[in-house]
Amino acid sequence: MKLSQSVLGLFTGRRVRGGRALASGRMMGQVIARRFLLTAGMLFAVQGIVALLGAADLVIPDLPSPIPFEFGRSIHLGLATLWPFIGTLGLVYYFLVEELEHDIFSVRLANWQFWLVLLSSLGIYGSLALRIGNGREYLEGMPVFYVGICLSLALGALNFYKTLTSDRNAVTPASGVMVIGVFLLLIMLMPNIIHFSNPVADEGVKFWMVHLWEEMALELTTAGFVASFFKTTGMARPQDVEKWLYLEVTLTVVSALFGTGHHYFWIGYPAYWLVIGFVFSVFQLVPVVFLVHMTYKGLKRRVSTGRREKLALWLILSSLLYHVLGAYLMGFIISVPWVNLYMHGTFLTSGHAHLAVFGALGFLVLGGSYYCLSRGSEPDERSFRMGVLAVLALNLGLLLMAGSLLAGGLLQTYFWRVLGMDFMQVMQLVRPYLVLRMAGGGLFTLGDMLLGWQIFKAWKQTRPGSACAHPAD
Amino acid sequence: MKLRTVIIISAMSLTAFILVNLASFRLPNPVPAGADAGKKVWQAYNCVECHTLFGNGGYVGDDLTHVIKKMNPEELRDYLVNPPVMRPNRKKHHPGVTQAEARDLVSYFKYVNTIPTLGWPPKPSRPGGNP
Asked: Among B17, B41, B65, which would you mutate to test the A interface (most chain A Cβ atoms within 10 Å of its Cβ)?
């Protein structure tokens, strides 16, 4: 045996042989995926509460809180970044083994990855609650915890790569795309563990994670779920899905990379980024148009689906709606440099960000989490109604939340940026919109708790040995 | 199109993106030691959650990219060391820092003010004026 193989063996333990399924009908990769997906669902539920408290702190003067606003907001952003990330790792484990029809390379590596990412995330939230952090927006935790997340990603990337290459004939477009996504997650995060004295480099590199995780790497990792859902429900032919995947990936990677430029307009980067950022932000629309077209064709086929698939489809459609309206259409408008000049740094950006994160990612990961965790069960009529109610509350809450931020942002832009009124005076004018945002946040949190409960129930019902569980459909 | 083609295009785009970024990091002047210390204070107190620099951060407080043009260094230091109550609160004060930290933060603001931002923020039509 080669030395490198011996060293790898120390970390990976016994290799899982291909195609072995457990009594539950799942492969070990899918058993581990369930841990990631449940964790993501639970962190999402917590995020709603944290965000609602933060929104209340903004509009209720002298609201007593054990955690000051600035660290509470950090926890909110930390949760907003990491729950979809953890969820998407679960989706990769789940659909990678399904696509390849053989199990993961190493169960031990997967377990290490899970615990490392979980402990690092909890470390970030715990230390921020104690007012210890690194003060970089979206990367507020101590760098050591991001080292932990990088390490967990490296373990995952190795495990996925070895799984993929153990049988090259079994590689499918979706499996390859998901693994590329995981490597990109690692590459974009790594430079963010360094301290930059240069404030321009600091801002620039921050968006490698903030923008490129959401609009590039995580879109690739969730593509496996989208592809599998369309194929298994009969909404698209496998060859159409394959064509869409390759186009989507190539266009997403190129346009998202240089589309990062719309974050670089005013941070001290050279002026040519105004052109690069705008032009490539236009191209970012193209892959979404392909996805909308495929979904439209799929819906026209009127394939009959069960309640479980319907609920997942509602979440996917919610994702598509905000993907088109919030992420790309609005993103495109605010990427026009002379529009951005005025709206940048106002609540307009915040409204766009809330829509974009749930459009590009949030609803998709929620749909994937529910779809995978409920596999092997079918919700009864009551659970289905609760699920639909959760999706409605999430949508209405998000629309109210983002709508009030956009309206407040428009006022802020006009009074502060255009007319030059005092910042605090304008904040007083905008306050009613922040109260409305809090109301929207309340509705969203209600949906968040309801869906979190549905996800938990689905996980509980489909646990091995559970009375309701039956082998995967 | 094959997976290999996707990987090659992605790798080439990523390399080009990183190289253009590295070329864009250039600063007009090197960062002085005081400004670097000030950046660490900015991060330690998590200032970015309420204030923006270059328009990026929280929107509860004013943008501080060119704060040094609005307040002189003494005023700023005094504000940071003896923080006032934050409107609309009646009791909650702005977080306070030590004299040394305030000095470093002011150095950082002075340095940030020298970074060219391509005309952002825009000049208002009636500066300080009401509608």
From this structure: B17
